[in-house]
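Researcher: For the record, we're logging two predictions in this thread. I'll number them. Prediction 1 follows.
Model: Prediction 1, sequence and structure:
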Amino acid sequence: MFNNQLLTLPFVMAFALAGCASFQQTPPAQLAEPLTYVYEFPGKEKAELFNKSRLWVAETYNSAEAVITFEDLESGTIKGTGVGSAVWSLFERKFKYNLGIDVRDG
């Protein structure tokens, strides 16, 4: 009987402590601003960067067609949507996000 209690104690403790976890909420003003990263590639043409960006989307998301909702080589724009997941308090939460890539020479 003592062995059964000893074996179940870690599970009970893990479950009890998981319920005590708390996360700080992101301020709404920060959520309204898009995350933007700028990378420079000196000497690269817009068409080459556009094609490499499209290839990155295909490799990262396993299918460019499932993610890309708009693309235009002339303007250098790729738009798409993605789905992510994160684990909070033993539950997996899914979320959607928009992806935008704008390329130009260099």
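Researcher: Logged. Prediction 2.
Model: Prediction 2, sequence and structure:
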Amino acid sequence: MASKARASRKRCACLPEVLPAGMKELLGRTGGVEGLKASLPEVEEIARAAAVHDAMADPLRLWIMHMLRAAPLCVCVIKAATGVEDSKLSYHLGILNRARLVARRKEGSFLMYELTGTGRRWLSDCEL
């Protein structure tokens, strides 16, 4: 058991003397591990990007976003186009709205949804 732990430590060692030359050079240019960590996006930015990826990871939500690319649509049109029940559609539109990929507004008695600028950018990045 002790030899297994020793072997594991050998494989994962990040001591400068055991790093490959290319890795040492990279860390030297970035300011070491601390410099590398400082260059990473803030935790909040990572969380936001993860939320967007989660929202876009569902085929129905992507389908809805592609429909909204053409024009803002009311819920009844989205429902007719997708054939999805009200509660399921509301759930998916809520996820897209919380991820700030779509925005909603009242227009008379209609609830309209449209892509946000963020939604358009993310959708264009995953062009089909």
